[in-house]
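SEQUENCE AND FOLD
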Amino acid sequence: MRAVTNSFFGFLFVIVATIISTCDGNSNVLCIESERQALLKFKQNLIDRSNRLSSWVEGEDCCEWVGVFCNNFTGHVKELHLGLHSSSPDVELDDEWDGYFQSAEWDAYFRSMLGGKINPSLIELKHLSFLDLSNNDFRGLAIPEFIGSMKSLIHLNLSLANFSRTIPHNLGNLSKLQCLDLGYNSFFEAKTLQWVSGLSSLQYLDLSHVDLGKAIDWLQATYKLPSLVELHLSECSLNNDPSPISVNYTSLTVLDLSRNMLSSVPTWIFSVCSLVSIDLSLNGAEGLIPNGFQNLSSLKFLDLSWNSFSSSSTLSWLSNLNQLQFLGLGDVGLKGNFPSAIGNLSSLTHLDVSRNGIDQEVSEIIESLSRCSLDRLESLNIASNKLSGHLPDQLGQFKNLAYLFLSRNSISGPIPFSIGKLPSLKLLDVSCNQLNATLPQSLGQLRNLEHLDISNNMLEGNLSEMHFSKLTRLRLFWASNNMITFKPNPSWIPPFHCESIELRNWHIGPQFPQWLQFQKNLSRLDISHAEISGVIPTWFWSLSTQFEYLNLSHNHLVGGISYLPKSRTVDLRSNLLTGPLPRAISHLEFLFLSKNLFSGSLSNILCNSSTKLETLTILDIESNLLSAEIPDCWENWQMLEVLNLGNNNLTGKIPRSLGSLCFIIFLNLGNNSLFGEVPSTLQHFVYMRVLDLSENQLTGSIPAWIGDKLSNLVVLNLRSNNFQAYIPDQICALYSLHVLDLGYNNISGAIPKCFSNLKHLDQNIHGWVYQIDSDNMFYLDALLVRKGREDEYSTTLGLVTGIDLSVNSLTGEIPKELGNLTWLQSLNLSGNLLTGKIPENIGNMKLLESLDLSMNRLHGEIPSSFSNLNFLNHLNLSYNNLTGQIPSGTQLQSFDKFSYIGNHLCGPPITKICSRNGETHEITNGDSSEGRHRSKVNWLYVSIVVGFVMGFWGVVAPLFFIRSWRYAYYKKLEHIGDKLYVFWATIGM
């Protein structure tokens, strides 16, 4: 009996001890020594750059280590939490908000990732039930086979850890496994999911981003799992099942088949009545939205966004889904009126009908929603539709509304005062509409507002401090491109600490905004085009430890800058900044300093040994006062793609090290004083699109390797140099060429007939643009001479096509092959020694806008095909030996006589009329005394002819035969013409 009693009390003691141990988080039980050593071996093979596992030290209790959880009674390691989890926004934001979240915080996040190898010592943790290695970076390592032998595992999360190769099928041996997450890795194509059927206890399965395009058994393998509750197969290349089967998911509540290639909604879904959440977004499904969803009365989440459903789809079945809380119908082809059935969803909290063709007044939609979801609605996205009308005061009745997207519509009128009655509002986006009037002061009452975007409207008036009085949580304020004036009291201290502020095109100046000095968390600032004058205050440069984007361009800022702030993008274009170039910092990617008054050498920014700009992609210092030579230290600038040093006072030769810029696509050294030959190292620019070396003193012949090596060139501008010899035939191999300007050089020889090979001159392309972010773009511009004047092309540069060979010493005839360039817009062959007739097929170039063949030795008649040039608005055929009648055509008669002067032509618009026998007669104002004065008029003609001959041989002829005279004369003439053009344009002629 005593033995029984002792046994009972002993058993009772164990139970009590177990309970106390389990409940006492401060248990003194130490981890098992063998398991501690196993963990230390595991750590040895890991790469821990941020020292996350610093607590994993020999001799310490492993149960106290970061990420390690032990059984408080036995001391066995039961869980390893080594996943790296980041916070994310509460809702999925529109594309224009995505860039905002790319900040310095991500750098720290990436550094915290574990890497290296996974040591098999984990097998020694016999009691391990939970293993989380998610959100790390194992650099394409395969999932170790030994994990399939860890039979105690209940939870395994290896998602977003950069594993690759094949999924080990022995994971199917983990019969106790309840949660398996392998999503968003880089596994090879999986041809079967049969191994999943062995996971009889599985409740959660995530294989997102695994290629299951050939695993046609995925449906059969998963619906047999009796306990499966959640199935996530997003972005798995799933197609429609060619042989539909009846399924029997008995417990499935969450189904995610988004981002696949399902051309229609799988019908078997409608038989799974237990479903609570369905995500079929981003599939491209077509046809009508099926009404089978009405059978799923338990649905709370339904996302059908980004599909291609028919606009005639009816949504009456929505009325049966009384429990629906989230409805995603963004970009599904809805047109016409807002679906009335949505207004009957009394449980709705999140609604997305963005990117459709809903054409209705916004007030009608707000009214229909207020009937049932007035007190529940938390997120409303109607962006990118065709909404019109005014925002109603009724908007202020949605007391729980936290996210409101109305951007990219045609909503007009004011923002209603009632907006201040939305106490839960966190995000308001009304950008890209036609809102006008002033902002209501009630905006300042939104205590929870974090993101405010009112940019690209027609808002006007003055803002006061009251507009921001209670916005203590404001993090993002985008309001660019309005007509708003904001000049608060200089002593004003804003209540918010923003991370992103964009006020482009506001009236802020002339004083630099003092209130910015209190924004210590800024990573993004745009106050360009804001009429700000004066010196940038010293406190500004220490405002933020890390700018993501800084734009102060197009103001009137003066003074010097000794160094730049730490930033990814710095834009100081179009100011009055002086002094030497500022010292740059590492991690800089885009630097814009053009159109200022910076002077001195480039060496300070390029060759400073303490600064390595290895990430710099764009360097734009055009139109400053830089002098001295271009430094020869370009070897460490491997990432540079755009280099713009045009319109400065740079001298010397083009440095050979410039050829080390392997990825450069845009190079402008034009309008400087560079001399010497083009270095052969530039032939390494295999990605080059725009090469501008114009307005220098470069010599030698045009390098043949330009055609052989720079095959991607679209613009080649060598204008106004001293290039000699002939045009190499290799230029004809530049099949992508749109603009070729070799004007004002000493080039001789004939025009290559192979110019007809420039096939891509007949294909218009869009302007080349760098998109720094969703709202700010840098266009690759170029100065091109067309229609007798020099213009800057940026956004339309890719739409320009032209050839300019003017003012050289080219001889021979105009090749008829040029007529094959049927999409050419501008052709200038003036100021050469060309002979022969104008080719008849020039008239085939029906898109020609500018044609200049003046100052040559052409003879014969103007081809009749010229009357087909309907787009021609600039024509110059003067000073040739052309004869005959000017062809009839609306365009040809619209030009003044100076387009034809210096020839022997007749017919309108000149004053000589054509007779039937080929003679010409001058049109006079009367003929009554013609006979009486005939001898006097003839003598007048004789004197004119003599004067012309004397003038020709005394002045004009040397221009033809003395190259230097002709070059200087035409350059001066063009300069005077430009001045006259600017003068007449200024006075409005």
Observations:
- The mean pLDDT is 85.
- The first strand starts at residue 46 and ends at 48.
- The radius of gyration is 38 Å.
- The longest helix spans residues 934-961.
